[in-house]
Amino acid sequence: MIRSLIVRRSAALGVAAVGIEAVLSATVPDDLARGHVIARLEPDVDVLPSAAHVLAVLVGLALLVLAPRLARGTRAAVPLAIAALGWLAVLNIVMGLAFEVAALALSLAVVLALGRRAFPLGSRNRPRPALVFAAIGTWVLAYCAVLAGPLVSDRGRTIRSALHHAIGHVLRVSLGPPRLSEAWIFLVEGLIGCAAAISLLALRSLLRSAAEVSCHTDDEYRAARATVERHGEDSLSPFILRPDKGFHLEGDGVLAYRVIGETAVISGDPVAPEGEAPRVLASFQELARRRGWQVAVWGASARHLDAYSALGLRAVCAGEEAFVDPAKFRLEGRRVRKLRQSVHRLERRGWQIEVFEGRELDEALGSEVDLLEAAWRLSRRRLLGFAMGMGPFDADVRPNDLYLLARSPEGRLRAVMRFVSHCGKLSLDTMRRLQDTPNGLNEALVCRALEVARDRGVPEVSLNYAGLGHLARDRERSGANTRRLNRIVLRVLSGRFQLERLVRFNEKFSPEWRPRYLVYESRVALPRATLRVLQAEGYLPQRQPLRLPSRVRLLPRGLRTSPRADVAS
């Protein structure tokens, strides 16, 4: 792994250096002594070296386009770079007998050929047709302009002379001396420049990764749901069924992912029988290599880290998840005094909390929730969540999911909270509350959910995942320097991300904490993986932002057997 990374970086750096040298050397005059030698070998000295200079610039620019793909490990870039280096060696000899530069280019081509195994990633393997046709058309126009230049110049002088004699002195003064040849040269140069730029864009599109995947079919969903029902023990397992994710099925296992900027962000650990999750991830790694994607696992648990390391992946703790054992939760004692006060205060004010299972939802409740969702959405410019949330799409209502509805003293629905059921456990999904509700309503809803879970024998209720929550919780237990660094990080990020506030909310329920990890390919890939995860979670905008439908339902009217399959990210 490390050796391949060194080969890729060195090759990309060398190709970029040769490309820059080719562009710069082609724009400066040739050595006069070598020019005399070329003149003896080639009588038409003004044509061949001049054309070689132009071609050398184009080849040098092509090498600069290929360099980033070589650094990334794109397999298709290797033969293209070898061919370009070979052409560049020939052009350097033609331009000025630069044998030393030609030898350098050929040596680098040999190194690429020997180290081609270090470039495992696939690519689109075909350029975008629009760019190809545009490049061909522009090159044809440039060639036609070169051929038609002399004819147009002569014809222009003839037309100008006729106009001069027909119209007279006024037209001659207004038109001025003829400049058609200079304008035509400028046109030809512009066409050649446009053709070269479009050709480079076509070359770049040839090496891009395969098309992004952000949806799944009904058959894939049914298979993934069956796997989650059998093996979805982890608290993040049910959220892989979010409709804007693609599925990778391998044996009896499945993982969910979304591709953002050539990085496949995997939602939590693969869901599979005991010991099979690493095999599912390894299978997806092979698929990602063929399609030119990098891989990042967001929200991974600690139980598979050793297996992920054996696959060549690294991990960093990215936060903690709070979960509660309902059997141990009581609204008694000084520690939960504020929670008890919140619940009693709402009861005194006449607020009511209703509890429903998914099988109990009907048309009337669905309509009420629709109106609440629409009102809540008006105050939110963006929706957060990816690995631990079903998102802003129509969700499949399952019979054992738990829904808590809070009504005001007037009987109006003002808040909804949903817990997703998985293998007898519950995970908090959505929390929708309007702004005119009293403080402590979310706490009261969670307390009621924990009471219901205790009565039904649910062994675990997962509340939510606090990104970088371990930094906020460890401030008092760490050293002075670490505390100072944590304070700086939290101060910088707290304005945009829910850090300390989410940790404080979770701490009210005396939860246990389990770490969650970001799994990535290499140190070089960590910044990109972090960026793509933040985009997937909704904290940062994507290049193609998520477009929400004008009317989105949190709960569909009536139970459905499968979610919408044509969702676009």
List keywords for this structure.
single chain, 569 residues, alpha+beta, eleven-stranded mixed β-sheet, 50% helix, 15% strand, elongated
Could you explain the architecture of this structure?
With 569 residues, the protein is α+β, with helices and mostly antiparallel strands. The chain is elongated and about 95 Å long. It has helices at 2-26, 32-41, 48-72, 77-96, 99-114, 129-167, 169-175, 180-206, 218-231, 277-291, 305-310, 337-348, 363-378, 441-455, 469-473, 480-493, 500-507, 526-537, and strands at residues 246-250, 253-260, 263-267, 294-300, 314-324, 352-357, 402-407, 413-422, 425-433, 461-467, 512-520. It has four domains: 2-118, no CATH class; 129-206, no CATH class; 218-320; 321-515, Aminopeptidase.
Outline of this structure?
The protein is an alpha+beta fold and 569 residues long. It has 18 helices and eleven strands.
